[in-house]
Amino acid sequence: RKSSFMLMEKLDTGKQSVPLANAVVPLLRESGLPVRSITTHNGPEFAAHEIIARELNTKVYFAHPYCSWEKGAIENMNGLIRQYIPKKTYFRGISRLYVKSIIEKLNNRPRKKNGFRKPKDMIKEKIA
Questions:
Q1: Which of 69, 49, 68 is closest to 60 using CA atoms?
Q2: Residues 40-83: pLDDT tens digits?
Q3: pLDDT tens digits for 4-28?
Q4: Residue 114 in contact with residue 122, Cβ under 8 Å?
Q5: Burial class (CB in 10 A: 0-12, 13-18, 19+), 11
Q6: Which of 12, 16, 34, 128 has the most CB atoms within 10 Å of its CB?
Q7: Where is pLDDT greater, at 31 or 24?
Q8: Alpha-carbon Rg of the chain, whole angstroms?
Q9: Dihedrals phi, psi of 59, to nearest 5 degrees
Q10: Do residues 75 and 68 make contact, with C-beta atoms less than 8 angstroms apart?
């Protein structure tokens, strides 16, 4: 069963692939969770996927175009994030502190699919 724990960071570099890869690697390492694989979309921001795969010793897969169900967990998380940051929001106006508050809220939000347990608590159990 996949967990819906949220890791997110605001990047000043936007969707540039190498800075994104260099941000993803420490976020996933610091989580303490095993990374078995990563499935993403085909956007140019993931052009440096080899860095992520190499550094985390994992495989990176790409969903087929217009097949969002192939990466359902992240699509669900995106829907939750949209409650705080609507589509077409200008991200330069969003502070890192606000992003952290969203992460905290979502990681402490009970989820039906997890028996109403909080993702943060589930992660603590897996790491312990």
A1: 49
A2: 888 899 999 999 999 999 999 999 988 888 887 888 888 899 99
A3: 566 777 788 888 999 999 999 998 8
A4: yes
A5: middle
A6: 16
A7: 24
A8: 15
A9: -105, 145
A10: yes
CA distance 20 to 37: 17
Helix axes 72-81, 96-107, angle to 10 degrees: 120
Residue 102 corresponds to which amino acid? I
Residue 13 per-residue DSSP state:
T
pLDDT of 32 over the 90 cut = no
pLDDT at 113 over 90: no
- Using the structure block, give the residue that is written with the tokens 């106006």: 93
**What would the two tokens of residue 35 be?**
């990374």
